[in-house]
Write a structure and sequence with these properties.
Elements: E1 13-18, E2 21-26, H1 36-52, E3 55-60, H2 67-78, E4 83-88, H3 100-113, H4 140-156, E5 161-166, H5 173-185, E6 191-197, H6 204-211, E7 216-219, H7 225-236, H8 242-252, H9 256-262, H10 273-282, H11 286-296, E8 302-303, H12 304-311, H13 316-327, E9 331-334, E10 337-340, H14 343-351, H15 355-369, H16 375-385, H17 388-404, H18 408-420, H19 432-446, H20 449-462, H21 469-485, H22 491-500, H23 506-519, H24 523-540, H25 543-557, H26 560-573, H27 576-592, H28 596-612, H29 619-633, H30 637-649, H31 654-671, H32 674-688, H33 695-711, H34 715-726, H35 736-753, H36 760-779, H37 785-799, H38 803-813, H39 816-832, H40 836-853, H41 856-866, H42 871-874, H43 877-887, H44 892-899, H45 903-917, H46 922-931
Parallel strand pairs: 3-6, 3-7, 4-5, 5-6
Antiparallel strand pairs: 1-2, 8-10, 9-10
Helix pairs in contact: 1-2, 3-4, 7-8, 8-9, 10-14, 11-13, 11-14, 12-15, 15-16, 16-17, 17-18, 18-19, 19-20, 19-21, 20-21, 21-22, 21-23, 22-23, 23-24, 23-25, 24-25, 25-26, 25-27, 26-27, 27-28, 27-29, 28-29, 29-30, 29-31, 30-31, 31-32, 31-33, 32-33, 33-34, 33-35, 34-35, 35-36, 35-37, 36-37, 37-38, ...
Length: 953
């Protein structure tokens, strides 16, 4: 007896619970060879799942290598103490069988658990015996997934549960999404998911499974000559001679399926793998050979009733032929029907059919399926039979079925087939524009935004907007949303759509909410659409429109009560889109109020929800940006770096990626990593191309470029970035809390420009720029406590007074970096007034804060102010010459050539200069030299297009 209470003996007939029923088949080899380690690993994975929580085992290997046999042996070894339920992804699944393995699994679990009608109203779409199905809502897919999760965990509460999903390489997008949901959200101990697939292990889901901590990965290798000999001995009933073992091992390449096919082939070895696999089928008597050919056309699982309809036979005569095919290990029993023992055998038999035979057999299947409510299978057989009209109508029905099952990627694929088969003479109850509209919407739900735009374009080119304004407006709404999600803007489409709609209608209210959200952060443009959307939502009672209106009101007024109501409505709707939009607004409002812990908590709650629903790459990445910003402001820089790195690894959409990279560059700049900051600045330019990025990302981008140029010691380029920011119209249209950090960056640049040797002309230019900054500041409102603190700091930077007030504001908001920065500048002002004790007190606190943060550049500035020395007096004449050349950007070798010294001597001078100036890098030494008037900045080259480029230090 093994640890789970089962006998270890194997007969040549194997039985295990699979596909919801007992599956019995005759195997060619009664001995399972060469997989002892893999079996032990699966048993260990189950033990871990029982003791520590749900687990995943991923079994990969080439076709015929023994993945299914391994699962069968594993199931047989477990005994009655463990429940094993499984399903397989059919190759036909790519032609419209979404969720195929889960339908099989859940049918078994429903029977075992005795689920009563009314408890799983989403699953009732698949299983009518569960009662009336729930109405279709935006959150229906996730309610369905939750019901599946509940049923699986309920089954595992009584005894350990092994769920097997075979042939994941054939899975449709919906199956992959549901499997990913279970992997991420199973929490009950005692559940082991065992998944098989062929290499290569590519795709988002497999990457997630591989990265998942605790996943057991098993790669089935080919059998060596010794194991091939053992397999042959078991098949033949006698020990084979070494020559036979060598020949079979070489010819089979250690693939167990091919070993079985070669075992009785004698000296004759077929020329190809297909011929090898056809040895058995071609040697069958006529009736058995014909039935096997009929079965090969089914594409996968073949229900017995369907087989009788296709063949026209039933009863004992059919059973005799089926028994022969099962005894010869060509077919196996599976649930209420049959399947080929291996897909390679089925493929070989199918490919051996003549074209006319294939078409006639597919036509017989199509005829048999007409009245059986299986439009996806019907469509596949009708297409293969060449019946375009039947294929068109069945594919359209299958697309609707996919939509009702929330299999949106499959719906997109099927609607593409409908358009390819389009015939206006075939009555579908929909015209071509309807199909294009449905396809565009399905693309939005599946994430294929670029294809969705193509469908919307085609529909808009065909529709008459004057005769059908509502239809046109719907298409414009879809295209605008698709463009927005692809990283562009849908504003023009939405505004055009509004012009086509009468006031007060629900369609208009929905469109207004979408438009207003897309206009943010340009609050003045968004205000009216939000107000009208909320009014329509209240008047019509539509919760979705009401939520969008409430979010807008909250964003513009800061009223948290509106957010609370919006969250309650979103949770009632169970709309994943709105449920993950609400935390963005919550995080924004808490940030504006200076409550960074609550902002971080809201964003992280949203990130967890996004991962739960498999939206970590899209909505999760955007929420990560909100979390990272709060963490940076709160001084939790290590956490921020982790959040940013993880989100960027998910390959976020362009707009989210732009924001994440900007924050990455800003954090690197604060820490003194100018190389990374410069790389980010260049990457942003490549990401944006020649187009302007969306206005919401312009402010952080301006801030980064200004401060980076200043940190690199190029004050004139930094000032040109300030000028560019001030001339950007978007700066005064966004929230003032987004605009003021840019003004503060500009003011910091102006202070850096004023070295002790600054001449009168430079001082006048700085004063003029400071006046511009002050003018923009005066034109902005004040948007919360954080914005007020930014304004206080800005005015202190411009006037060089009021530093204690600025320090108090940042202390109140608990923002350590801004607090340290204001303490530093306050200390400089105190020194200028002769108050060295006051300056020293401020500097010591600033030093503690900056050191704790890891803000290296600020720490060095503080150190230089705490230990004043005349840099000019500390440098020798030769060192001043080297410093000027270093500031001009010359390398040590170039400096040596210019001064007629050796490169090593030049390196010694540079080392002394860095030490005397307390600089960590050559770039920082150049920056100090410019600020203290020790070197003249070189002229900045301009490119042919008149633009400046961020440069690497």
């Amino acid at each position: 007896m093994n640890r789970h209470g089962a006998s270890g003996d194997l007969s040549i007939y194997m039985q295990h619970l699979y596909a919801g029923a007992v599956v019995t088949w005759r195997v060619v080899s009664p001995v399972f060879v060469g997989r002892d380690e893999e079996l032990s690993a699966l048993r260990a994975a189950l033990d871990t799942a029982v003791e520590r929580g749900p687990g995943v085992a991923l079994v990969t290997g080439d076709a015929g290598i023994g993945k299914s046999r391994l699962l069968a042996e594993f199931a047989l070894s477990l005994g009655p103490g463990v429940r094993v339920v499984g399903g397989a992804c059919a190759e036909l699944g790519r032609d419209g069988l979404p969720y195929a393995p889960f339908v099989t699994i859940l049918r078994t679990l429903i029977r075992i658990e005795g689920v009563t009608p009314g408890r799983c109203r989403r699953l009732a779409r698949w299983f009518p015996e569960l009662g009336e199905a729930a109405e279709d809502t935006e959150g229906g897919k996730h309610q369905l997934y939750e019901e599946v999760l509940m049923l699986v965990e309920r089954a595992a509460a009584h005894q350990p549960l092994v769920l097997t999903i075979e042939d994941l390489h054939w899975a449709d997008a919906a199956t992959s999404e549901l499997l990913g949901f279970l992997v991420r959200n199973l929490s009950a101990a005692g559940v082991l998911l065992v998944i098989t697939c062929r290499p290569p292990e590519t795709g988002a889901l497999l990457s997630e499974l591989i990265r998942r901590p605790g996943t057991t990965r098993l790669r089935l290798d080919r059998l060596d000559a010794r194991d091939v000999g053992r397999q042959l001995a078991a098949i033949l009933g006698t020990e084979p001679d070494p020559a036979t073992v060598g020949r079979v091992h070489e010819r089979s390449d250690g693939n167990p399926l091919f070993v079985e096919a070669l075992a009785r082939s004698g000296e004759r070895t077929p020329d190809s793998a297909r011929d090898l696999l056809l040895n058995g089928p071609r040697s069958l008597p006529g009736p058995a050979r014909e039935l096997l050919r009929v079965a090969s056309v089914s594409g996968g699982h073949l229900p017995h009733r369907l087989l009788t309809l296709v063949t026209g036979h039933d009863g004992a005569e059919l059973d005799v032929v089926l028994r022969e095919l099962i005894d010869k290990s060509l077919l196996v029993m599976s649930g209420d029907g049959y399947a080929f023992r291996h897909a390679l055998i089925r493929d070989a038999v199918y490919e051996d059919l003549l074209p006319g035979e294939r078409a006639r057999l597919h036509a017989r299947y199509a005829q048999a399926l007409r009245a059986h409510g299986a439009p996806a299978e019907l469509a596949a057989h009708a297409r293969a039979a060449g019946d375009r009209a039947l294929a068109l109508s069945a594919t359209h029905l299958a697309a609707g079925q996919a939509h009702r099952s929330y299999a949106y990627a499959e719906q997109v694929r099927l609607l593409g087939v409908v358009l390819d088969l389009w015939d206006p003479e075939v009555q579908l109850g929909a015209d071509r524009i309807d199909v294009l509209t449905d396809a565009a919407e399905a693309c939005m739900l599946s994430g294929d935004y670029a294809l969705g735009i193509e469908y919307a374009d085609a529909a808009l080119a065909a529709v008459d907007e004057w005769r059908e304004p509502e239809r046109t407006a719907l298409l414009l709404e879809h295209r605008g949303r698709l463009r927005h999600r692809l990283g562009g803007t849908g504003t023009a489409d939405w505004e055009r759509a509004l012009d086509l709609l009468p006031p007060g209608g629900l369609q208009r209210g929905r469109l207004l909410g979408v438009l207003a959200m897309g206009l943010l952060p340009e609050i003045e443009r968004a205000r009216a659409p939000f107000d009208e959307a909320l009014a329509i939502g209240r008047a019509t009672g539509d919760a979705t429109v009401t939520v969008r209106g409430l979010l807008g009101v909250a964003s513009m007024t800061g009223h948290l009560a509106a957010l609370t109501e919006a969250r309650a409505l979103a949770e009632r709707l169970d709309s994943s889109d709105l449920l993950m939009t609400v935390p963005m607004y919550e995080a924004t409002l808490h940030t504006k109020a200076g409550d960074h812990p609550r902002a971080i908590e809201a964003a992280r709650d949203g990130m967890r929800l996004a991962r739960r629903y498999g939206l970590g790459r899209s909505r999760g990445a955007e929420l990560a940006r909100y979390a990272a910003r709060g963490l940076i402001l709160a001084g939790r820089w290590d956490e921020a770096a982790t959040v940013l790195a993880q989100a960027l690894r998910e390959d976020a959409p362009p707009q989210s990626k732009r924001g994440l990279r900007t924050l990455t560059g800003h954090l690197a700049l604060l820490r003194g990593d100018l190389t990374t900051a410069a790389e980010v600045a260049l990457a942003l330019r490549h990401l944006d191309g020649e187009d302007q990025p969306p206005s919401g990302s312009l402010a952080p981008r301006h801030q980064l470029l200004c401060l980076l140029a200043a940190a690199q010691g190029d004050m004139e380029r930094a000032d040109r970035y300030v000028e560019r920011a001030l001339s950007d119209p978007a700066l005064t249209r966004v929230f003032s809390s987004d605009a003021r950090p840019v003004l503060v960056a500009g003011a910091l640049v102006q202070r850096a420009r004023l070295s002790p040797r600054a001449d009168r002309e430079l001082r006048q230019r700085v004063a003029a720029r400071q006046a511009q900054l002050a003018a923009v500041d005066a034109a902005l409102g004040v948007d919360g406590a954080l914005d007020s603190a930014w304004q206080t700091m800005l005015r202190a930077l411009i006037d060089d007074e009021g530093w204690d007030h600025a320090v108090a504001r940042w202390r109140e908001l608990r923002q350590p970096y801004e607090l340290a920065l204001c303490l530093f500048h306050g200390a400089r002002a105190a020194l200028a007034c002769g108050d060295r004790p006051g300056a020293t007190t401020r500097l010591h606190e600033a030093a503690r804060l900056s050191h704790a943060l890891g803000a290296a550049p600020l720490s060095r500035q503080i150190t230089r102010l705490l230990r004043p020395r005349s840099a000019q007096d500390g440098l020798t004449e030769r060192e001043r010459e080297v410093l000027q050349l270093l500031a001009d950007g010359l390398t040590n070798r170039q400096i040596a050539a210019r001064l007629h010294i050796s490169p090593s001597t030049a390196g010694v001078h540079v080392s002394h200069i860095l030490t005397k100036l307390n600089a960590a890098t050559r770039t920082e030494a150049a920056s100090i030299a410019f600020q203290q008037g020790l070197a003249a900045p070189p002229p900045q080259p301009r490119h042919a297009d008149g633009a400046d480029r961020p440069v690497h230090p």
